[in-house]
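Hi, here's the filled form for the chain we discussed.

Project: internal
Contact: R.S.
Residues: 104
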Amino acid sequence: MTDADLLNMLRDCYDSLQQRNIVDLGLVQSASLTRDTEAPGATVRGVEPRHIARVTLRAPSSDDTRNAQLRAQIENRLAGLPAISRTEIKMLPALFPILGERRS
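And the returned structure, exactly as it came back:
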């Protein structure tokens, strides 16, 4: 698995309000993999290496619930990959917090 593969997997994650994937929206600032030397089996010959997925993204809004849902969606998507042992997400504040907010 490569960083490009990781970015491609993130195309399955969508912003709930804009209904577009977070990669095409430009929310993903960086996505990288680091070999997890502490993953179960990491020192056993023949066991495929596992990685820590590190994702930095711009929050789509200042709505904490919406941002938490996006974070959970990313974690769940990557948890299903055998090559990923864990995911670390850094969410940067929204550039324009008022845009994209749901109005009551």
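Let me know if anything looks off before we file it.
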